[in-house]
Amino acid sequence: MYDGKQVVRVETQYKKDDLYNIGVEMNKRKGTGNYDIERTIYNYEYVSLQQPNLYQEVKTTLKKRKIEYLDRPNTNLLNGVIFTSGPEFFQSLGMKFKDSGRTYHTGDKKGQAVMIPIIESKEDIPNAVTYFFDCCIEFLKNYVGEENILFAQVHYDEDTPHLQAYFIPVVNKVKRKCFVKDKNENIIKEEVKKKDGTTSIVSKLLRDDKGKIIYDEIEGNFLNNDQFWKDKGGKLSFHQMQNDFNKFITEKGFNLYRGDIGANKENQTKLDYDIAEKKAELEELNKERENTLKIIENSKNGLKNIENNNSNKELLNPVKRKFGGYKEEDVFRIIKYTRGLEHKIIILSTDNANKDIEINKLTEENKTFKNNKELLKRNEIIKEQKSTIQDQKEEINKLSELVDILNNNIESLKSKLETEVNKWKSLFKKMCKAIDKLLKRDKPKEKLEDYEDIVDAINNDYYDYDKNEIKDKGDYEIEI
Length: 480
Description:
two-stranded parallel ribbon; 5-stranded antiparallel β-sheet; elongated; disordered C terminus; 15 strands
């Protein structure tokens, strides 16, 4: 018997434009999750950002470690992974849960209550739970390389505790296509015909005698998402990762169900899950709406039958309440019941109208999720704004780098100047000493001006070597 089901979800296609939203979700707890801000303070960071945001963290890391990559908008810069299990697993480790008042609308737990952790202090997080996440981060470090993990947090403020981490997919070998070159080592171009009938000029690929493209294997330091997962097993890489994690976590003493081995299930993203939940909730509301309409219709039909029945009309008329042998109190009781029934119909009609509004709202939201037009439109606007902001940021970064370079140059020049000044100072002292020696002076002069005067006198031939003194300058001035 297992304590729970292991959950390891991987997302491999985070690009430059996605990094800002990831950082906001991780640090500011804004996104699609059910965040409880009172529990946010208990979240724990294994790896923290060293830069102001996640994009700068990725960019700085790639530059610092001299990792080669294609700097394009569609380059997969980052991978994300989540490790968790269901509430029953964390309960088996001693964590307490309570009913959130919500229910699951899809999956194996459809119709069951959504349970959330009870955490009011650090003591409410059992050591066994902390150890579980310690093991998860240890597995990830071994699997992708500790130096490649840029951000890792344990979240206790959502429905289920989980470890959420992001890493760069780095490899030390890549395969690159070879191209046909001329005798000057220039790549030869060729004209190829596209599917739509148009032609384009492309580099000519080098092929073997069977027509297969020839590749070169290059060693180095590369960010390459495709090659990273090919090295992990290609199409079976996620399957193998599930196996490896289950083996690792079992050896650590945890009893988690791996899942159906060989099952061809795709990872469900958070957005896919939200859409499925909304669809299921809409379906439930539609059923409830139909049931409500039936109740109202039955109630209306019941009233019509009472109104169309003559004997009942007399029965419900207080003036004739003594006719037919009915007691007065029974008649009033029926009248009260009828009025209550009418009131119930009004309430049900109001509830139904409210449900119609809610259903229409959910339908529109679901349509938006389904066709994604509004979402794409909004994302395009955000993308343009992000692009402008990012361009400005990059420009600022370039200017900052330029300022740093200039500062470094200034410091270098100052250092050189100081060295040069010190050389001249040293030379000047030596020259002064030499002058004193040549002029057979016992003591050096104390003032700089004395040496300047001597030098001027020597240079302009008015120094008296016999008397060892400066002649009168007036004797050598040109008279007007």
